[in-house]
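User: Here's a chain of 351 residues. Predict its fold as tokens.
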Amino acid sequence: MATYLFEKEIALEKIHTRSPFTRGARAGIAKAVFSVAAASVLALGATAAQAQTYPDRPINWVVPFPPGGAMDTIARVLGETMSQDLGQSIVVENKSGAGGNIGASYVAKAKPDGYTIMIVANGMAVNPSLYKSLYYDPIKDFEPISLLAAVPNILVTQAARKDVNSMQDVITQAKAKPGEYTYASAGVGTSIHLAGALFTYMGKLDMLHVPYKGSGPAISDLLGGQVDYMFDSITSAKPQIDAGKLKALAITTTKRSSSMPDVPTVAESGLEGYDLTPWFATFAPAGTPPEIIAKLNASMLKAMKSEKVQTIFAGIGAEPIGSTPEELKTYLADETAKWSKIIKETGITPN
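Assistant: Prediction complete.
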């Protein structure tokens, strides 16, 4: 900073020798220069002090979908462990609707002080290509913190159905009666919706997409017979499968899930090349100090290594990932490009 001020003094001397400005005008310029420099020093000092004391109050972790799904479970499990490390409680707040856009818009406008963060899924990379306009920019309005986990989706139907025992049964019936069968999702643009859209596109099937405001309501209607099928996360579907209420037909990832190794993948079941790996990550509002981002990142990575979190993740079919903020930034850009191409090819729309 001293060098910066010295250079400004030299600049002012040059102005003095050839400028028509009066002595008073030159003095005013010098005062302005020193005022800006002083303000910069104060701002840097305030940011450093803020980072040193952070956090000194509860952190609000926004989940842009209702309780009950994989995203909600991951946020609550990690939040509980992180609160012990950071010495402050982490309060999970569900702000659902519009495929996660309501919650994301809320966080984008929040104060960038580290006390509002959010968990997101594939929709963060999908929505820019799916919606004509958003109230936020997924790249410019957020600071990446860390990738968290990957959780496979699974094709399910009511266990009571005797006419469907495999994914091929679904394809056969859908082709026999175009437009008659439905598949539910947790909302437009979610990984669950994308799994179904990619399935119908690759299988050349005419099925009606029925979006819900979250996985919980969708499963409820699936169990009640209001919809025929659903690609749901293993997290929320497995308890219903274990209870004998839902029937597992296929996994969306290229490899079988370690939590349900007997369930074949969609590719194994007849749609070669099918691959959808849902991921979850955390972001903060743009402008959040890098020192605070670093503290949150370190706490998340530490939490994911804990025996408690790994045990619970395994129970819900989640594979821990973890990353640096820079790695997440690159990953989001790559995923956004990938889904832009897929959406154009498949004709997926937000209805």
